[in-house]
Design a protein that fits this description.
The complex is a heterodimer of chains A (291) and B (327).
Chain A: H1 2-11, H2 14-25, H3 27-30, E1 35-46, E2 49-60, E3 64-68, H4 75-79, E4 92-100, E5 103-104, H5 112-118, E6 119-122, H6 133-143, H7 150-160, H8 164-167, H9 180-193, E7 198-202, H10 210-223, E8 228-232, H11 236-242, E9 245-254, E10 259-269, H12 270-275, H13 280-286
Parallel strand pairs in A: 2-10, 3-8, 3-9, 6-7, 7-8
Antiparallel strand pairs in A: 1-2, 1-4, 4-5, 9-10
Helix pairs in contact in A: 6-7, 6-9, 7-9
Chain B: H1 2-5, H2 12-20, H3 26-61, H4 67-71, H5 78-81, H6 84-91, H7 108-140, H8 144-158, H9 161-173, H10 183-208, H11 211-218, H12 224-253, H13 256-259, H14 279-287, H15 292-323
The chains are: A alpha/beta (291), B mainly alpha (327).
């Protein structure tokens, strides 16, 4: 697994290589990266149903943290807590603490709109607006009140998401005319354009072919220099390739009531999760004996 | 090659028969034909009244439409301006002998009246209706107030149009005395009629906008009202426009709400105040008269009304088609 990590980093740039090597040589150094999110005893309810319980994770700056686990174990639910997207679902409720740079995100005084400006999100299904490519990327900055230099912002965001060369001649055309992979990169560009600190990605490659997936993975290893990325993925190879840290979730079934609850099994450095996990369930999952 | 893969590969002719359908039994073919014939027949029967109506209106109303129709006033007592003989001749198709200086068939006041009443009603009902729909779908959702408004809106759809007319007659026309009956009063009645149609159709269209667009916008730190204005309404616009056009077409053709409210004054009046008339009013008023000229006026007004509504609908389709290019 460590070989695979190296391979991906080779194609990005040398700066990353150095840092990863240092981190591998001395894992304690990686733990000194500042904590962006600190999650403790988090449970998420949909009305009376507890979907996930007792989640404890630290998300560190300029790292890619991957959430892995079988379907229905609450990875997406937890991810959507980080930018309070669950607020939009009727009856969704959070217990426990989730802090962002030490501030409780669920403090009643916190405005979810401000949270989402700093913590962007890319969804499972590409969801460009039915507008032009340009307007899609310029949407966020315009909402934030920016009126000048929009052309620059749009170009930079599209360059960063490796889409500029493909769309520069048709910026005024509908975004819905792009292929699925292009649409997803456009959604990443749209998220980048507001310059968030964190980008949450909910299975961003599940609707894409391997080539488009590869491009988005390259993109992630590149942009993590500037952003903090949390990604939900079903693809363990993908988690191994791109993430620095991995959180493994699973489902616990209450035999008596047949209620399924998602739980966090362990969260550790990716090498450790894949090579030498602490929990037996993690080992079974990553070696393919379960799920 | 296939033979080696499948030991009992089906015979070519059998496969051909299956795929071309020639192995289908006689009784199934008969049933198929009968069902197809029945469906086409049902369609024709349904379309027949419409075709007949359009043909009748065109054939009976077309020769009323002259340049005068759009520029001259509605003739008063026709018996005094034209002899019965001339009228009979013209109605029999001998229009060459008609002395147009004596009978001028004009409908301008009613055309103007219909346009301003419908426009005023639309200006009242469409913004209010769309705002109501936005509240129901984007804010109220399944709340008690929203459910109540939705229910009342349904009830309002079911109120007969004549009752709407009476309602405005009671609350607006009577309190305002002589100046009560006007295009404005008519527009109020038509607006009441349009409002629930606009609300429910716009809400339906807003509901069709996928939630993932709302989420995408919210995830960029957008407040609900900005999301609604910037993403949801533009995406729903073509559908909302169609719904509004339906309401406009309905209002333009209504007679009952205008009976008590518009005054039935046939002189040209291009303002919202003062007595006015409308195409639907003229159809009603003239069709109940006995003379052939009066009947011709009614047919002409009917043709004008149908054409206007058709024109508005096509225009709306065209405009929204341009907006919808980015969909």
């Amino acid at each position: 697994m460590t070989d695979e990590m190296g391979e991906v980093d080779d194609v990005t740039n040398t700066e990353v290589d150095v840092r990863v090597e240092v981190a591998e040589a001395d894992p304690s150094l990686a733990d000194e990266r500042p904590v962006v999110f600190n999650v403790k005893d988090l449970s998420v309810y949909y009305a009376a149903f507890r979907a996930v319980r007792d989640v404890k994770i630290e998300i560190r700056r300029h790292e890619v943290t991957a959430f892995i686990g079988p379907s229905g174990c609450g990875k997406t639910t937890v991810l959507r807590c980080f930018n309070r997207m669950n607020d939009l679902i009727d009856g969704a409720r959070v217990e426990g603490t989730l802090t962002y740079h030490g501030v409780d995100l669920y403090d009643p005084k916190v405005n979810p709109v401000e949270v989402r400006r700093r913590i962007g999100m890319v969804f499972q299904k590409p969801n460009p607006f039915p507008k032009s490519i340009y307007d899609n990327v310029a949407y966020g900055p315009r909402i934030a009140g920016q009126k000048s230099d929009l052309d620059d912002v749009v170009e930079q965001a599209l360059r960063r998401s490796a889409l500029w060369d493909e769309v520069k001649d048709r910026l005024k055309k509908s975004a819905l005319g792009l292929s699925g992979g292009q649409q997803q990169r456009l959604c990443i560009a749209r998220a980048i354009a507001v310059n968030p600190e964190v980008i949450l990605m909910d299975e961003p490659c599940s609707a894409l072919d391997p080539i488009a997936t590869g491009r988005i993975e390259d993109l992630m290893s590149e942009i993590k220099l500037d952003y903090t990325i949390v990604i939900v993925t079903h693809n363990m190879q993908q988690a191994a390739r791109i993430s620095d840290r991995c959180a493994f979730f699973t489902t616990e079934v209450n035999e008596a009531s047949d209620v399924r609850t998602g739980v966090l099994v362990e969260c550790d450095r990716t090498e450790k999760i894949f090579a030498n996990p602490t929990d037996e369930r993690t080992e079974n999952y990553v070696t393919g004996r379960f799920g | 090659m296939t033979a080696t893969l499948a030991p009992s590969a089906p015979d070519h002719d059998d496969v051909f028969d299956i795929l071309t359908g020639s192995s289908i039994s006689f009784s199934r073919r008969v049933k198929n034909r009968a069902a197809t014939a029945f469906m086409i027949g049902a369609l024709l029967i349904a379309a027949l009244p419409l075709l007949h109506l359009i043909l009748t209106v065109v054939s009976k109303g077309a020769h009323a439409i002259t340049p005068d129709w759009f520029t001259k006033d509605i003739p008063g007592n026709i018996g005094q301006t034209a002899s019965q003989q001339q009228i009979n001749e013209r109605f029999a198709g001998g229009s060459a002998t008609l002395d147009v200086t004596k009978v001028v068939l004009g409908m301008r006041p009613a055309i103007v009246g219909t346009l301003i009443t419908t426009l005023a009603a639309s200006l009242m009902a469409i913004p209010l209706g769309i705002l109501g729909a936005v509240y129901l779908n984007e804010y109220g959702k399944k709340g008690r107030l929203a459910s109540f408004i939705r229910f009342m809106s349904d009830v309002m759809t079911g109120v007969p149009s004549v009752v709407m007319g009476l309602f405005i007659y009671t609350v607006w026309v009577i309190p305002n005395g002589v100046s009560g009956a006007s295009a404005f009063a008519g527009a109020l009645a038509l607006g009441c009629l349009m409002l629930p149609i606009v609300v429910r159709s716009a809400e339906e269209m807003l509901r069709l906008v996928p939630d993932n667009l709302r989420e995408a916008s919210a995830a960029l730190g957008t407040r609900t009202w900005r999301t609604t204005l910037g993403v949801v309404l533009p995406a729903a616009l073509p559908g909302i426009t169609s719904g509004c056009m339906l309401a406009v077409a309905r209002a333009a053709g209504e007679t009952a709400p205008l009976l008590f409210t518009i005054g039935g004054v046939t002189a040209l009046n291009a303002s919202l105040s003062g007595g006015n008339t409308a195409l639907s009013m003229q159809i009603f008023a003239n069709a109940t008269e006995n003379t052939n000229e009066q009947t011709l006026l009614a047919w002409g007004a009917a043709l004008t009304l149908i054409t206007t509504v058709l024109f508005l609908t096509v225009l709306a389709r065209f405009v929204t088609g341009r907006f919808a290019n980015l969909r």
